[in-house]
Design goal:
Blueprint lengths: L2 E7 L2 E7 L4 E10 L31 E2 L2 E2 L3 E3 L10 E6 L2 E3 L2 E5 L4 E5 L5 E5 L8 E4 L5 E3 L9 E6 L7 E7 L4 E3 L5 E8 L1 E9 L3 E9 L2 E3 L2 E3 L2
Parallel strand pairs: 3-20, 3-21, 7-10, 9-15
Antiparallel strand pairs: 1-2, 2-16, 3-17, 4-5, 6-16, 6-18, 7-8, 10-13, 11-12, 11-14, 14-15, 18-19
Amino acid sequence: MKKFFVVFCSGVMMLALTGLADAGSISGKVKFAGKAKAPKKVKITKDPKVCGTKGELIVEKLLVSDGGLQYAVLQIEGEAGDAPAVEADQNNCSFQPHVSLIQAGAKVTLNNKDGLTHNIHSFADENEAVNFAQPGDDLAHVLPEEAVEVAEIYPVKCDIHEWMNGYFAVVETPYAAISGKDGSYKIANIPDGSYTINIWHETLGESEHEVTVAGDTTLDIELSK
């Protein structure tokens, strides 16, 4: 039986497929080709006794560390199966993670860890858009199934705290990952063969790269504006 799971490793979120014999992997780093400016600090305009008290809030549109690019979504086509459950947090008045990787059809739970009301407002085109309040005592709210039915990457925000924004990256394939703080990623348990890897980044857009998987394969990718 094939089983799917979500795994976090060194800040990298990935979907993986178990139970495949003679499967390989793609791993490496997503790098930014350029000089990145230090991210701007978020100006707290509401609920300062809660927001920003667990660490400084920054704009997460282009996060680069030693050349490594965070929050790039990487995926190749693959046979879909049972979608693993996903949890995303509203913590310190920010969406954590900034980009959530979700296989289509997954159960998605939004955790409110701030003890105050947030608002979940999505801007999906292919999926059902949502716009609802999540009070501080609503600790875990499950998204409607219709919000993550088909592959689409779309923004989400909180209308109450205007700086709170992020993305839901809904993918059909189990072969997907999001790059970690140092740009590293890994897509595991891929049958050997030739693939097109699609990459999306909030600021740098989309691109495609060809890769041949033969066992454990390394692919470093450089993105630019």
